[in-house]
Amino acid sequence: MKKILLSLSTITAVAILAVVGTTAYFTDTETSTGNTFTAGTIDIAVDGQNPWTRTETLNVVDMKPSQHEYTEYVIQNVGTNPANVWKKIDVTSETDNIISEPECVYGNGTWDNGTCTGTYSPINAISTVIRYDMSVWVYDVDPTTPGAEPKWWQVIYTDEMGKMLSAVNGQDILLGMIPEGWYMKVQQSYHMDSATENWAQGDAMTFDITLTAKQLTNTVVLENKIFPDGEEPTIVYDSTQATVEYVVKDATFDYTLAVNGMPDGNYTLIAWDDTANGYTFDWDNRGAAIALANVTVAGGVANKTDSIDLNRNLINAKVWLITGTYTPGNAVGAFGWNPNGLFETALMDYYDSL
């Protein structure tokens, strides 16, 4: 009897295992094939040249105090991505070139029948007396096209600032952002300071200009700017500024906002994407700007890290820090002009990945 029961138990166990082993579920499988990642490109052309081979066309052979020499060129973004563009001047040589009698005497030399002799000590530092100013304008068409209007612009240096070439030598200067297929006109002047003395007579300087385009990174700098009547917005180089660090492409707009030097009070970070109006940035359209963040400045500083789901892209957007409190994620609506805010030094893109 025990053997019979054991046999029945074994049969039962095998039957259970058989049932378990043959259990099935409804399923469906879909396969996405041929997926690829394609890298974009960052590429610029200058005055139609790629690579840029033109030498800066400056007539500095006979430069004199208080005279200005102007030059300009056009940068085109021929890549497939928007790009921030920097300019760098590298002074490669400063020489006497030609020694005149006044320069010889200034350097404690002796002028003898057209030759400087004695204890002449040259001063080869002409870059310290050449003032430098620069402005940029961004266009969606070739700026030489009749009727072309800039979409964005700013003055980086003015002659009145007294910025000498020696002060910017070797520095990367942010010109701004150029959207894909757009253009930037760069205008600059070189002005020998009116207080320049005879040591600079006949001196010569050579320098290289390097333009560097980089993909958009995670930082937008907002600066204090002034808006003189009838003139372009001009950067004020003081301690008042803000930085916005964010992820250029993400499911949410994750940011860190740092403000320095602003009067205490409540502020709102806004982005003005004027896509619908062809980036005219007409003041009457300002109500479409979207609020990104609220921040309270205390003791001249504020720091905030947060996230907001915008459910939209921001393309070629201006970014401002304005007074007042507006609801993040919503359109700001009409707001009054207050030049005591902070303003972008380059247009900004954000891509919502969901």
Task: Please characterize this protein's 3D structure.
The protein has helices at 2-21, 101-106, 165-168, and strands spanning 44-46, 68-77, 83-95, 109-112, 115-118, 130-139, 152-157, 172-178, 183-192, 204-215, 219-223, 225-226, 234-235, 241-246, 249-250, 253-260, 265-272, 290-297, 301-308, 314-323, 342-344, 348-352. The chain is mostly beta strands. The protein has two domains: 44-215, Immunoglobulin-like; 219-352, Immunoglobulin-like (Sandwich). Strands 11, 14, 15, 16, 17, 18, 19, 20, 21 and 22 form a ten-stranded mixed beta sheet that branches. Strands 1-2-9-6-7 form a five-stranded antiparallel beta sheet, with no helix packed on it. A three-stranded antiparallel beta sheet has the order 8-3-10. The radius of gyration is 32 Å and the shape is elongated. Residues 1-20 have low confidence and may be disordered.
The helical percent reads under 10%
Radius of gyration based on Cα positions? 32 Å
> What composes the largest sheet?
10 strands, mixed
The CATH topology assignment of the largest domain is Immunoglobulin-like
Number of strands: 22
- Name the structural class: mainly beta
Question: What is the element string, with H for helices and E for strands?
Answer: HEEEHEEEEHEEEEEEEEEEEEEEE
User: How would you describe the shape?
Assistant: elongated
Low-confidence stretches: 1-20
Tally of contiguous helical segments: 3
N-to-C span: 70 Å
Mean pLDDT, all residues: 85
CATH architecture of the largest domain: Sandwich
State the name of the first-level CATH class of the largest domain. Mainly Beta
Strand content: 35-45%
Counting structural domains, the number is: 2
